[in-house]
Amino acid sequence: MRIGEVAERAGVSVRALRYYEEQGLLSSERTTGGQRRYPDSAVERVRFIQNLYAAGLGSKAVLRILPCVENGVLTDEMHERLLAERARVQAQLDELTATRDKLDDVIRAGQANRPGAAGRGRRRGSAAQACADGFQPV
Amino acid sequence: MRIGEVAERAGVSVRALRYYEEQGLLSSERTTGGQRRYPDSAVERVRFIQNLYAAGLGSKAVLRILPCVENGVLTDEMHERLLAERARVQAQLDELTATRDKLDDVIRAGQANRPGAAGRGRRRGSAAQACADGFQPV
DNA sequence: CTAGGACCTGACGCTGACGTGAGGGTCAAG
DNA sequence: CTTGACCCTCACGTCAGCGTCAGGTCCTAG
User: Fold this and answer.
1) According to a count of CB atoms within 10 Å of the terminal CB, is the N or C end of chain A lower?
2) Span CA (A71) to C1' (D11), Å
């Protein structure tokens, strides 16, 4: 598989793939002419890399996690790392969840205080209340 | 409250606070000498800003969300924006959850194939299996 | 065999969210 | 009034994760 196809299937740029290789996250065979060839599995691998990036891991962290693959065996060290990164991801999840709920509060409370919409009997001031709960007026 | 105390309490740097002000996310009174003074509420506000940053919003997006506060009223436009950003955050949550679960798979499957630990009766090869499910050997 | 689309290697550019250092004021305690 | 911790404003530096451009090569369909 050529680099362009991998890029398209995985939804990333060609440049990104070359960057991943540069970082040691992705390898490739080369044709005699020097062009990269990938197995089909590369697509999934790239997607997983993207997931890890999206989870806030830097390329160094990703690099330290991926090797579990090269041998199919988890050393104690790898296990520790995986647990550590899992914890990190979970912490992010918790924060994100809290943020989402906060946004929900603001939205829900704001419903009652819309200028255009008649606030169907809900008590006024609840928007200001919700806003005060989390951030104050400038 | 002086800038240093806000920074410490909110767990960010002084530089960050000045940056937030520069971006219009945070305001302050000034003493006659030109030093910034903040109300106690600034700490919470900063924490919320941090949450939004952590949720992947850029300072422009944050800037467009925060104003709901200044008047305590949601215009239709603000409402739209809030909903849009909420959706974004939710999408991130979903991705993150999937990534966490994937990590869990790798960890759980790897348990059976640790070099040091006796794999209490679990069938071998499951680690390689889990690894294969998501990313392939280099 | 040839055209032109895909690919190659540098190498510099970009953006966001600050870090950092210079050079110099401010403020509250003693 | 002095002192030392704290604060001020530039303004350049940094780092990741690519984007982008230049100049040249490969490869495969026809």
Assistant:
1) C
2) 50
